[in-house]
Every structure is written in structure tokens, then in C-alpha cells.
Amino acid sequence: MGFQIEQICLHWLEMPLVHFFETSFGRTTRRRIILVEVSSGGASGWGEVTCGEHPHYNEEWTEGAWLILRDYLVPEACGSRLETPAEAARFGARLRGHRMARGGLEAACWDLEARLRGEPLWKTLGGGARREIPCGVSIGIQDTPAQLIGKIRAELEAGYQRIKIKIKPGWDVHIVEAVRREFPDILLMADANSAYTLADTDRLKALDEFGLMMIEQPLAHDDIIDHSLLQEKLNTPICLDECIRTRHHARQAIELGACRIINIKLGRVGGFTEAKAIHDLCQSRGIPVWCGGMLESGVGRAHNIALASLENFTLPGDVSASKRYWTRDIIQPPVEVTPRGTIVLRDEPGFGYALDMDFLASVRVRQETFCAK
Hints:
The chain is of the alpha/beta class. The protein has helices at 62-77, 99-117, 121-125, 145-157, 173-182, 201-205, 225-233, 247-256, 272-285, 298-307, 357-363, and strands spanning 3-4, 7-23, 26-40, 43-49, 81-82, 132-134, 136-139, 162-166, 187-191, 215-216, 238-240, 261-264, 289-291, 331-332, 342-344, 354-355, 364-371.
């Protein structure tokens, strides 16, 4: 179908989390979120920039992403004609990094295309391999092991199919052991967020006895080679996250034997076009993928649901209910999980949910609008 970008509006939101979320690199209690609204032909598509408040997960952070969008991406995109939404991946191609900022803009273009066609985003993407998306949850580091056990029990009672717990040195083997003792049969994985080095190989190998689905990104955020050396020594599959930003990185990791699973995060790889390319490569090589989360609002969460409907997303992802993170989400209805631990695809045009514009306005702290010249 295609469209010409007539206007882009940037929205900066600030929303408190229901409960703090802690990883090996810090604790988050409040999210700063950038939404990108792209308009054409009387319709608007929405995308979310999924970076954190600080440049800890990668080099991007909210303030920096706003400047990249305002000063580089929006001037390049505004007024451009796209024949397909995949062409939006070219915006910012000359920049080094900043894939989350680029991905928010690109996702908005895919959403706009779906709305102009009058079809759900998952269909525009070529998804729909399953009408119910299997869901897992990611549980951050807690103040006590008992608190962690209690949270896991609550999530299992809510129906979630897989539990991921965050680990770091000093909060790892004894924690996994305690969880396994309490829940011997659940699908369980551990996410290290790059907290270890090869010097910790024996400590990571000690996790083999607990039957984990995977250990996610145990070594450096930009490493592939050391992960291949570690994977040789572990029975537990390694899943790569932070270091896989492109199809090229995924190919290198697979050929080096650095992982047996890959987590695809829409923002980390720069949007749907690259995410689909990584998905297709992994499918051709027999590497399962799953959809990771970045504490998104309902907009980013809805995009993740559409992405996870592609065929090779065979493992439960971090795509969970709105209420796990927000007292009130910016979409209506909020994302909900069935008692079966799934999210049902919606057939409404675009990402499938209505925006709660009144509430969005109440949590918006900054806004800038740009029109094509």
C-alpha cells in the first residue's frame, strides 16, 4: 500500500512500576517512555522506544533517544514516501547504534501501514502462526529468597508457563537451588545480564544440575566468542540477548556455537524488519527464538505480541499482562493473560488495542510535533 509520512509526534511519558524491577545492573522503580506517533492520510501509527532510563542495558537511554529522534531520525523521515514499512529501516542507517530509537520509529510505520490496510499488525508482519501466544514472566532480583519464592508462586497461580529469574554473582546458585527445591517441575531459566566472565565458568556449570531451559547472556554484552567457549563446557543451553543486534550477529553466534537459543527484542535489533530477518535465519538453522521484554507500556507490549505470532517463536516469551507492571496502562483494554498462560491475538487494525488518550495525556511530560515541509 505505502504512504507518505506527513507528521511525526514524540511523546515522553513517565509511569511508576507496580513493583521495582532489579537486574544485575540496577533497580528500576519508574519508567521514562518515548512513544513515536507517525501520521499519514488521517491515520496514526504508534511505536515505542524501549531503552532504559540509563545507558546500562546498552548505550541508549531515554534522554539520548529523544535527541537522536529529534535531531536525526525525524528530520530524515518526515515527508518521506514509503512503499512498504520495511523501508523505514533505512532511517538512521548511517548512525552507529541507536537501534532502539530507530526501532520505535520503524515500529510506528509498520503499525500505520496495518491501520491503513485495515488489518491487524500481526497479519501485516506475516504472523499468525498461532492465535494464542504462550507467556512467561521475568522476575527481578528480590530483597530476600522468600520474597522471590512468593512472587514465583503468584505468577504460576496466574497461569504463566515459564519463569525467568535474574541472577548475578552472590545471587545465583543458592537461589536457583532454592527455587528448584520449591518448584521442581516448572520451566525455569536464569538471566545474568552479562554479569559473569569466563573465570566464573565453574560457578555457571554448577547450574547444570537444576535442569534450566537456558542461561541468558551470562558473559559480556558485546561478546560472542567467549560465549562459544562457555557453551562447550555447559550442558545448559546459552541464550544470547544483548550481543545479538543484527542478522549478521545471529549468524556469527550460530556458526561459532555460541548459543542454542536467541532472544529477539524488537527495540534491541532496531524494529520489525531486522527482527524478522533474525527470526528467519534462526528458523533455517533450527535455533528456536522467543520474544524478550523491556518493561514496555501497552504499545510496546502489543507490538511484542504481534512479533511473537511468527512461526519460530516456539518458546514462551516475556510477554505478560499489563497489570504486572502498571496500575493503569495507556491502552484499552489492558493486555490480559488467559488461565492457560497465553495472550490471544486481536483482530482490530494495527497493534490491536485502543489508546487511552486521556490517561496518556496525564502521564505525558514532554511532546514535540514535526510536520513535513
